[in-house]
Every structure is written in C-alpha cells, then in structure tokens.
Amino acid sequence: MDLPPSAAPLQALPAGRLPATVLAAVREEPEGAEEISAYLYDPAVAARNATALRACLPSWARICYAVKANGFPPVLDALLRGAAVAGTGGGLPAAGADPTALVSRLGGVDGFEVSSVREMRLAREACGRVVPARSPYLVASGPAKSVTLLTALVESGVSMVNVESPVELRRLETVAARLGRRVAVTVRVNPARVALSGSLQMGGRPSAFGVPESEVPAVLGLARSLPHLDVAGLHVHAVSGNLDAAAHLDYVRWCLEFADRSAADAGIDLRVVDVGGGFGVPFEPDRRGERPFDLDRFGEGLARLPVPTDVEMLFEPGRLLVADCGWYAAEVIDVKRSYGTDFVVLRGGIHHFALPTSWEIVHNFAVVPRSAPAATSSPDRRPGEASTGGADGVAEGGVAEGWNIDTSGRPVTVVGELCTPEDTLARDITVGAVRPGDVIVFPMAGAYGYEFALADFLGHPRPHRIVLGERGS
Fold first, then answer.
1. How far apart are alpha carbons 239 and 255 in whole angstroms?
2. What gap in Å lies between CA 352 and CA 449, rounded to an integer?
3. 108: enclosing H helix or E strand
4. Helical H runs in 38-107?
5. pTM check: above 0.85
6. Which of 43, 146, 393, 405 could bridge to 78 as Cys pair (CB 3.0-4.6 Å)?
7. How many whole angstroms separate alpha carbon 142 and alpha carbon 155?
8. Going by DSSP bridges, is the β-strand pair 312-315/272-274 parallel, antiparallel, or unpaired?
9. Angstrom distances, CA of residue 472 to CA of 142, 143, 232
10. What is the rounded distance in angstroms from the CA atom of residue 69 to the CA atom of residue 55?
C-alpha cells in the first residue's frame, strides 16, 4: 500500500484557517531569502495546553512532559511557565517564600520525561532558565538504557527511573552502587490485556516494552532485594494517540488498582503510579470526524478515583501539549503532471516531516499563495521577479512549460526533495491553483516533527525552527 493513504475526496484547508501570525511569517519572507523550509512555533499555545491539563487534574497528579515530542527550548520554557505568563512578555513573577511551588502556581508542567542524555540536558537547562531555585523533576524512560545513559542520569540526580527489565534493574543497581547513590525506580508493566485504542500500542501484546504482567511479582521481588534501588511503584504506558476520555479513565483506574494490589502483595510502600501518556489529538477531523480528547470528562472521572493517601500519579503527555503549537511550512519548487497525476514538489519532505508516512495518516495542509500568476511566473526565479515567458505563460519557443500546470479543482500528491518515492507527505488532496513559490503549510506539526525525521538522508539542510514573531533558527 502506498503511504500515506489516499485522502480522496478531501479538500485542502483554506489558507484563512491558518493563524495570522503563520500567514505573516510565510508571506513576509525577505527578498532574496532562501526557499522556505521551516517549523513555525507558538509556545503560548503549548503553555495554554499545559494549563488546561493542569486544571483538570486532581492535586495528587504530576505532569512530566515527554521531551521526545518536541525538545525546542522555547517550547520547554513555555510548558514550565504555563499560560499565566507564557506569551505575555512579562517574565516570571518573583518567587515567594516557597520557590519550589512556583511551577504549580503558574499552571505549567511539573517536570519532564526524558529518554536520552540530550533530552536530560534540554530539560535541566529549561528548569535552570525558568525555575532555577527548584531541583528539576525528571523521569527517565526507554527500553535500552545503557550504562552510559544510566550513569549520566544518576549523576544528574534523576528523580525516577522507569525500569524495563530484570537486566536493567541489575545494571542500574551496579551504576548506583559505584556512584554511592540510591535511586528511586518504578517497574514498567506490559499488561496482559489493554482495552484502549490508539495509533501505537505497546501493551497487551508481545512487546519490547516493560515486564509481562505475570512476571511482575518476581521482578518486584528482585527490585526490593537491590540495596541501591528504592522501589516507589509501577509504570504502565500501553498506547499512544487515544482520543476516548472514558476509555482512558478506565485504563488509569486499572493501573491504580493493579499497582495497589501488586505493591501490597510485594510488601512495597506504594508512592508512585506512572500511567504514561497516550493522550491523542485529532489529526483527521475532516476525514474521520475525530474530536479532541475530552479533558473535562476525564478530570471529572479522575476526581472520583479512590487514590490512596500519599500516592502520586504521574502523567507523561507529549502530543496533547504541543501538537497544535507548531506548523511545518515548505516552499513549492515544482508542479508536475505525470500520466494524469499532479505532483507538488517541495523544498522539504520526510527528512523534515515524517509523520504522515510513519503514522499512516492523512495530514491535511493549506496552500499559501506567494507566487505571481501563471502568466508572469517562471520556474527559475523567486516570487516577485520579472517573467521571461511569452503571452499566456507560454515560453517564447511556444512550448507550455511545467510551471503553467493548472491544479485547480484537481487532487495532488505532495512530495519532497529526496531521491525516493517514499518521500510523500500527502496523497490525493484536492487543491486550488498551486505554483512554484507558493508554500504548503501543515498544521498540527508541533509534536514528533523536527525531532522525528530522517534529518541526514541526502544531506539537505535541516528546516529552520522559528518562534512566531521572532526570526532565526
């Protein structure tokens, strides 16, 4: 099957549905600048999302944003600050008698979930900029934590390590003993059954993630026996991209009940239940009728859960907080018709934006006109330069050139600049007129965009990352 899937008969998004700041950033490119290939970010959107999630969660819940979704420093800073100050230009309020409570008072995230040394450094640097008086709260996840990574985590004072296997438990014990530290851990569980749908599933099936449910008692026993590990609880992260709030609430309830029962059986003082992330966002509202995750309903259900005293529940959201704070914009380099199919070729592709193909989704886009009309355009000039063609856009020799292909009312396939047919971002989306110099803009590109792509294949320059209202990468 060709990926991404066909979108027929979906229409492209109107450019007017893009925020004015995005349109301005695309249209006001300086004269003579290089072709547009960029991620545009509005950190204030991420901050508002963090505050909205914070508002729906009970006091026993802690938010640790998954840095893998988007590690751009302005976004991390905004997530920590929350909507109280992000985007206002006023900076942080002065810390009071209890500076460690600053982040929660602002409505931002409590900390970060990290999976590498680089992510750990990005998270610590963000905390140093935003809440320097507070020790960073970092939770480490991932199925292949090496001695090098575990050493860096322990040396940095990581708050919690979600351990994936008995081998990893022993490896972490060795590292902690060598460094003379005691490290808090949770044991990651792969449940035998997961009644939860999503774009990716890591539980309820054979998986490299976590410990099978039936083996949890033995693994908890091993963890308790290791003197440099402090067993705080259990971790479950079973799916990604779930949009059903009621089903997610049932999943959280199961995690809590399973953790409470397992800890009691193992003689462990349960302090932490990490339920991971898994909150989805509606990538295909027009085609599939997807609707946003219902935070209000989810929060109301959480408030009724019988959470034991002194137990914290950790949430590790990623895309829920940042997907809609970013847009991927790429300039049209060519428009071609091949055996009846129209192709729009971009200065970009899956080496910048791999989501549509890797997640097998229809990711709709808007066309932002920047080029002159066909009668005055030329393929080897930048928008605004004079045309060398003849009347009606026909070259002097009388042969109609490729830049005059009329895409109006036709489905197009949007492809990138890589030397592979796999470099396809959208298929069979009906558009108006598209010409070289126009810009294709994909909304909902703030999560798993820049970080997730095949950046070095062919060696094309990476896309710029731009904060809306600012310039620079």
1. 13
2. 7
3. none
4. 43-56, 73-81, 102-106
5. yes
6. 43
7. 18
8. parallel
9. 32, 35, 43
10. 22
